[in-house]
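Workshop exercise sheet. Pairs work together: one partner reads the sequence aloud, the other fills in the structure field after running the prediction. Swap roles for the next sheet.
Pair: D.N. / O.F.
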Amino acid sequence: MKSKLLLHILVLFISQLNAQTPELVGSIAPGVVGSAPANFSSVNNKLVFAANTYISSSPNRELHAYDPQTNSIQLLLDLYGQNTSGDPIALKSHNGKVYFAMADPTVGSLVYRPYVTDGTPAGTTNLLQLTGSNLSQTINPSFNSNPSELFTVYRNEIYFIATKINSPYDKAIYKTDGTLAGTTIAIDISNTTVFQNLIQGLMVYNDSLYFTGSFNGGVGSLYKSDGTTANTTLVKTNLSMFPPAGYAIYNNKMVFSAVEGFSNYETWVSDGSDTGTYQLAEINVAPFSGSEPAAFTLFNNKLYFLAKPAFDTLYLYAIDSTQGYNINPIKITKIGSIGNQTYSSIFKGESLLYFIGNADGVGDEPWISDGTTAGTQMLLDLNPGSPHSGVRDFITYCGDVYFSATNPLNITGENLYRTDGTSSGTVRIQGIAADPQGGRLIKDKIILNNVMYYGGSYDNALGEELYKYNVNCPIGLNDVYKKNILLYPNPAHNFISIARNGEPRQWSVEILDLTGRLVLKKVNYLSDEIIDIQNLPKGWYTITTVNNLGQYAVAKFIKN
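Structure field:
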């Protein structure tokens, strides 16, 4: 234990010695306006992101790629040109491609179409035919699901929800291999009425795809499928999921937010059967109210989430599988009023949970929890008193957690902060010569090849552009982060998955048999993907995952 502690101190010490100031990667938009890079993903060792170019004074938000090897930024797609933005969103990397949605201004502001890119202009194309100014072959991210999760990996293919080609423009579930020819309807619910069928939310559990769908224009019900219409079956009638809240697999059951009939959203549990699908608890008992649970996060063998027991309060809750699924969740602690902030996420660091909360007389600030009531508290009042600090976008980098928040010295928005989970170890990252106090407008972040990239502004002459921050993390010392991982199902037969934890990391996965022989390797694995083990012989296996920081985790499973 002492050697582990000394090693961790050494990691922090070396990180501090090698810390650098932020560095401008490139300026995409001219002058002081800035390109506002955001919605980052990566493919083939390139960053892929949305950024503004300008024609006259109007922004034109399109898809770009940055290649660290050539230090060049390239426009990948500008379908409409002029002053009309494609506004790429929901970027998801899978098997050497990035899937994303792009607005179609010929139809409406909330209508998007599915696209794919390999990081080159020639490899950036649409996945469904462009059909003109109607709803055909389009996605509505505000309705279908969480806009950041429009694309779902199931059995190593991408699935998404879009409208069919003819009126009444029913929703259907499509699957794609990343080509226009290979994009087809996978699941289609029958409709003989003039009312539109609706589908929302895609969840993967026990090698099945779950979603909410309506039959013949009726009420929403919970379905499961093997990815085909023929093998799509009803799980529970009159039950609709709440996709933006997310879901988790815990104790080999699916936990999610849903509403039954005309009630309100509460926490539900399902094992994939009608009788095994039930409301876990009614946290908000007020008439016509729901607790709206969200941000389900696995941590220390419990499932944590945020919910509202009353209209104006927000609490952190936990479910403990050792106490069974038929009890109320554990109320950890009140973390504030929900009037001033949309609380939608919990970020899991190496040893703590991070989220946004507020206390009486204090605005929105970063909070931490070790999973206990006593260990749940405000990390630091970054903007002292009642003003909010604008906390957002947590990410783990070289053993620490980084996030954005206001600089109280000059009240500029979204500086870059680093924390080790203690108030004394929470510091604002220094800026550059043009803005030594730390910049502003720093939001989305991504780690690529052990370097953190983000959009921000450190120079009034440039505006908001693409920057990088490199602490020269000593990858050779990252065995300090070794920990166990949760696999499901275990034992497994055809497929196995690593439990989701909400962390936007990519992994390399290696599976070894009992003799130590490598039997399967997969790169660019995301935590919500399924690993195909159908061809492995029966027996015990060891699975090792290594992320892009060099951190690794090990677990064992049985193939039966």
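Discussion prompt: Residues 1-19, 475-483, 500-504 have pLDDT under 50 and may be disordered. What would you look at next?
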